[in-house]
Amino acid sequence: xxxxxIFLASSCMHLLPDAQNNKALTEWGCEHTGEVFxxxxxxxxxxxxxxxRWANFFYGCGFLxxxxxxxxxxxxxxxxxxxxxxxxxxCEALLVIDSRAAALDNLARATGYSHDQIETGEYGTxxxxxxxxxxxxxxKEDLHSHIHGIVKGNPILALVVFIALSFHSVMEGxxxxxxxxxAWDILVAxxxxxxxxxxxxxxxxxxxxxxxxxxxxxxxxxxxxxxxGICFGRLLVDSNRATPAGGVCAALAGGTFLFVAIMExxxxxxxxxxxxxxxxxxxxxxxxxxxxxxxxx
Length: 297
Hints:
By secondary structure, the chain is mostly helical. 85% of the residues lie in helices and 0% in strands. It has helices at residues 2-20, 23-31, 35-45, 54-111, 115-120, 124-139, 141-152, 155-177, 184-207, 212-239, 245-271, 276-293. The chain starts with a helix and ends with a helix. Keywords: Membrane, Transmembrane, Transmembrane helix. It is a multi-pass membrane protein.
């Protein structure tokens, strides 16, 4: 919960103000205001200059982008899970057919009749059913094996989780890179959050029977996402000081931090009724500490 407080304070008191104080982004908002809107604004508010708040706009965009990525990831997971559930039902039906065919085989051996005698004699109806079920089982044998493999594990679901978590990591790294001052406190919060995310990602891959080699490669790539975001954010700030890129980057990262705090960490922690007071204390401590640090940064 302390990490949630740090993320929340970093979003509201560190990254958003950095974006709002970006002179290039502010001037860009003033220059790109529509002429029709300016005419209406001048009529009702006089000659006071109006600038669109791009920093706040991109701050909200950062929140919404991550939210949409999360929703899309959950939709894909539900879609594949539902498809696999139907596949498992087909497997169970095929197993029933196999068991019935085996029972009729036993009947043929017990009575001493051949299959031709069963089909044309006393057991004609049962013999016809026997041949039909045996044919169906043979035709579906490959499908049975294929579905069984899918039910056992599907790497696509793990890939969806990997993409969503990687997007989070890049956006959070951009917040550090675009920061106008040292952000060691934010780095500590990100490391704590990413360690839990890496653990969850590993469990997801193991659940879907991904090979150890693929798991190692994926975790290595995931560990590079946040440094990549830091480099990208720093590159925008260093090479484009006269443009709004640094402010946009900080605003997007701020929206991401807000999402992580209020949509991921806090709800999950409060679902457990134990230690509620201690959790709230940790949340306030993290928020208050970052608030105090903002006075000197």
